[in-house]
Amino acid sequence: MNRSDKKNWVESMHDMMQNTDSIFVAHYQGLTVSAMENLRHQVRQVGGLIKVPKNRLMRLALENTNYAPLGDLFKEATVVLFNAEPVDLARILVNFSKENELLKVAGGAVGTDILSVEGVKYYATLPSMDELRGTLVGLLQAPASKLARVVQAPASQLARVFQAYADK
Fold this sequence. Notes:
Helix content: 55-70%
Distance between the termini: 96 Å
Shape: elongated
């Protein structure tokens, strides 16, 4: 990369960092190519982006963003996940690090909150937006179905009474 390419890359990453809601950082020293491709595939499935940046350039890209404190994490072979639902990305990263010991979660940020390794693991345990939506729909449908049963009950009971008199 020549100087102008580096400058353009830093500017484009800076713009991405300003327009994303979450970013997660991990160290991947010694991870195989096939394992890294598997991680990339999982991140793409949830709509996220994964980058393996040059640490110095990434620290420059993070300057003047909400994620500037994460610059200290860029010391080893680093991978960055961003631009998707934070819970999904955290879950992928934590589960993948359990399967592959060479991938080590370093930290992250959601909004203006800087997360430690424990914070990223906590995010991985939260329900995703789709799960929350499903729960909410279930809660909203429950009263309607109960109301339908209550309204229907007197009519069926009345029909049983008439049938009992007819059988007599």
